[in-house]
Design brief:
293 residues; alpha/beta; Rossmann fold; 9-stranded mixed beta sheet; elongated
Amino acid sequence: MKNRKLAKVVLPDVLEDKPAREEPEAPSPDPPKAGRRKHQMPPPSWLAPLRTAAGFVLVAAVSLGVAWGARRYLMTSPRFGLEQVVVTGQKTRTKDGLLARANVKMGQNVFSIDLDAARNRMLGDPYVKSVTLARRLPDTILVDIEERVPAAMVALGDGLVLVTRDGDAFKRVEVGDPTDLPVITGLPTELAESDREGFADKIRRALDVAVDYQQSTLASKQPLQEIHFEAGTGIVLGVGSPVISLVLGGPPFRKKLEQASRVAMELERRGQKPDAILLDHDARPERVVARVR
C-alpha cells in the first residue's frame, strides 16, 4: 500500500465554533435630567377674560332658555285656567259683579291676570273700601273684600248721600241703593266739603242717638225716619207716620227718649195722637210738653 500524504484542510471560520461577531450598539441619548420640564409659553393676558365672558354668556343663554320655556308653559297650559273664584267679606257686592268690574273671566290663565289692575278696578266701586287678591294654584283666585256699609242718608244740597257708621260719605243715592235708612238733615253742604272730620263727628253723634232710640219702647211702634240738626237747639227726631217730632235738644238723649216713650204711651191711653213732644227745656229738664193733633 502506497504511502499517502494527508492534507490539512482548514475550514472557513463559519464552520468553526466561534461566537458570532456582535455589531456595536448605537449610543442612546442621554436620559432627561430629573426635574427639568419643557418650557411652555404662557397664554396671552387677554385670553382669560375672554374665557370668563364666554362662560357667562353660555350660562345666561341657558338660563334664558329655561325661563322662556317655563313661562311659556305657565302661560299656555290648560292646568292654570281659572276655574274658581273665592270671595270673602262681601255683604252687598256679588262675585259676578266684582269679576265683571275687574274684567276677569273664568277660564282665563291665572298668570295672565294682572292682580293689581283687577284690584284697582274693584276699588272703583264706591261700596268697596279695600280688597286684596291672590292666586291659589293651579286654578283659583282669592278675593278678600271690605265693604262700606251705609248707615244713613244725608241731605246735602239737592240730593242724598250715603254715609257709613263712621261718617264716611261715599256716594250719591242712586237707583238700586238702599233707601230704608234714616235721613240726616240740617247739615250745611260746606261742612262736608271744608271740614270732613267735623262732618263725620256730626254723623256719628246722630247715629248714636239713633241707636238710643232703637233701644227705646217707642221704636217698635214709631220707626225712626229722620234725624235733624237744629241750629242752637240740638237734635230733633222724626218718628212714625204721620211723623211725630221728638225735640230732644242736647244730651242726655237716652233719658229724654225714655220720657218721650212714657208721654206717648199716656197719650195713646187717652186716645190722643201727639204731633210733637218737646224735651228741650234746659232749665227744667224734667218738664215735657206734648202737642197733640
